[in-house]
Amino acid sequence: MFPAASTPRRAMPPARKAAGTDRTGPTAQPSGAAEGAAAPAPKTGGRNPFFDNAKYLAIVLVAMGHAWEPLTDGSRAAEAFYMTVYTFHMPAFIIISGYFSRSFDMRKDRLQRLVTGVAVPYVLFETAYAFFKRWADDDPGHPISLLDPWFLTWFLVALFIWRLTTPLWQVVRWPIPLAVAIAVLASVSPDIGDDLDLQRVLQFLPFFVLGLMLRPEHFKLVQRRAVRIASLPIFAAALVMAYWAAPRMSSAWFYHRDSAQELGTTWWVGAVMTPALFGCSIVLVACFFAWVPTRQTWFTVLGAGTLYGYLLHGFLAKGSRFWGWFDDYAWLHTPLGEIAVTLLAGGIVTALCTPPVRRVFRFAMEPTMAWAFRKDPADTARARVSA
């Protein structure tokens, strides 16, 4: 299992110099021989299959969760699956992002990748989503606001902020308890507002900090056979609990975007629910990681394109609501319809993670933008010497 929240942080390993070790977002992944000691499983082609597999499976669950949302009003079973998946799919993404942010510092090349890999996609997709809503939802007055992330883009804002704070978490004595305390304070502070989706930034923060503290041996622990077997009754119990809670609890608690008062309850409930949900999420994330294949699979290559699937599937997820597909086709609310929606969502997001789609949209997701940054005089001098 993962380390206890009160365990003091171990000394950080030396910063790695591999070119791809501080890529950001759902596509974050190490490259080069320098990451060899940090891999819980053998690498293939410079990447670790385990993390690519985990990211692909998590993004499939994200897409399925969005597809289930319109079905939850009329199906208690759909609501139970929805609540269970929402307990761990984004926390798993965030933990992986934190794990591959351990070497982040304010070095020039890493700051440039933070801009091109997170900030630029945020600006482009926030703008694209705004225009899409104007057209698809017949809402010509919908504003373009970089301060108010719409739908999926909150994750890019959060990741940008979290990574900039990475050096701070490397020097404090008890980073995880501190991050949980910040999340609790956010959950009882309704005046934070919607700017930059700071509620989500702060309430999801403990998962990122946990990722920063994890080491390869922690992932090996959850991949043991005993954990894999134990995860089955744990998942079953989670589904039973979610089925019981479905009519009694709002699924908005799992979005972490509102304070307790905004969810119609008192502040002390938020102070209790935040650490409780954090604990439940960690348990289910561990169970999820236990079943992620550590070997190369047919979908391993898709793990490098999960940011593409994450951002692009949002147009279809929102479009299906704007165009009333779930209202016009009543059969979608039957058991067979729910299965069909689940398979369709998984198939679409899989297609959006493929290399051809990545090549088409790389200009927006992974631009080089060398023209936008000053050249380091030292680099120029070294280039002249080598010439």
TrEMBL record:
Sorted UniProt keywords: Acyltransferase, Membrane, Transferase, Transmembrane, Transmembrane helix
Membrane-spanning residues: 80-101, 113-132, 144-162, 174-192, 198-214, 226-246, 266-291, 298-316, 336-357
Domain Acyltransferase: 49-353
Domain of life: Bacteria
Biased composition (Low complexity): 8-18, 28-44
Keyword Transmembrane helix: yes
InterPro entries, A to Z: Acyl_transf_3_dom, Nod_factor_acetyltransferase
UniProt-listed Pfam families: Acyl_transf_3
One MF term in the entry's GO annotations: acyltransferase activity
Keyword Plastid tagged: no
Protein name, UniProt field: Acyltransferase family protein
